[in-house]
């Protein structure tokens, strides 16, 4: 079943590093939190129930005084904005960001922002979160999306590939199944990695996607007894949460990946994402939709790229500037 996250991180000294993790209070996120904390990393747990997270941190983490808790409800873009404002106020830099939270198996519901919940929680809100925190990413920061192999199960016809609409990613009730919504959200995550790789092309920030393993028995299956039964029956054949956290830990910390970016991993090895997930045109089309939704739902939000200049002040750059500087001779 492969190594555990603890084995991957064994020799690492992370004492000057800060790692932000979404969904850090449960399953794979909690395993990551425990291992990073044990190796001296300051961990920022971004969770929707900070009381529960504080109890878990006290019970599971040896150096829990080196953990900061932030309230984050991904089903609310206002909560995401508030959480990132607090982080920007309190923290100087982020060396590692692990976008790990997810929901699965819900009946069709809309968030307070009017978007399908799985899509917003698993993709859109976490994408918005990382964009709002971009200005404090360390020069060689690593951003890791917890991905899923099931992103491969989404196959859109050519018309959708050329012109996806919001209804293709934030599913309306009549087209909804919880599995489809989850797979679409994970596909959007891999496409977002490609967009961010491009957005950060002129920096040393790396972005990776990591598939933890399939049918890992965590609280992910809690929303429907059928999934609970399936995941429980798969325990003998699946990784546990400690093993499931290893590929994410590898992407977040391994020196072997220094200087690399925009790669998909499983079993701590380079793998290839689906053909659709590495389609640059689709990545930018989904990005256009994402930007329009965020501008619509979070009025006044400035989507420009913010990068630290050599003096330590912030410089703003539009996507058009980036394109121009990369393609001018
Ligand atoms: N388990 C698997 O077999 C498997 C397979 C492939 C990929 N993955 C991925 O691995 C990652 C971790 O999942 P897991 O298996 O460890 O499941 P988990 O134990 O259910 O953890 C999911 C985390 O996401 C958080 N979350 C859910 N909705 C949220 C919201 N609205 N706002 C903020 N946080 C929210 C949960 O917080 P609460 O505790 O407050 O609900 C929890 O901390 C996910 O991205 C999942 O898609 C898992």
Automatic annotation (TrEMBL):
<dbReference type="Pfam" id="PF00106">
    <property type="entry name" value="adh_short"/>
</dbReference>
<dbReference type="InterPro" id="IPR002347">
    <property type="entry name" value="SDR_fam"/>
</dbReference>
<dbReference type="GO" id="GO:0016491">
    <property type="term" value="F:oxidoreductase activity"/>
</dbReference>
<protein>
    <recommendedName>
        <fullName>WW domain-containing oxidoreductase</fullName>
    </recommendedName>
</protein>
<keyword id="KW-0560">Oxidoreductase</keyword>
<dbReference type="InterPro" id="IPR036291">
    <property type="entry name" value="NAD(P)-bd_dom_sf"/>
</dbReference>
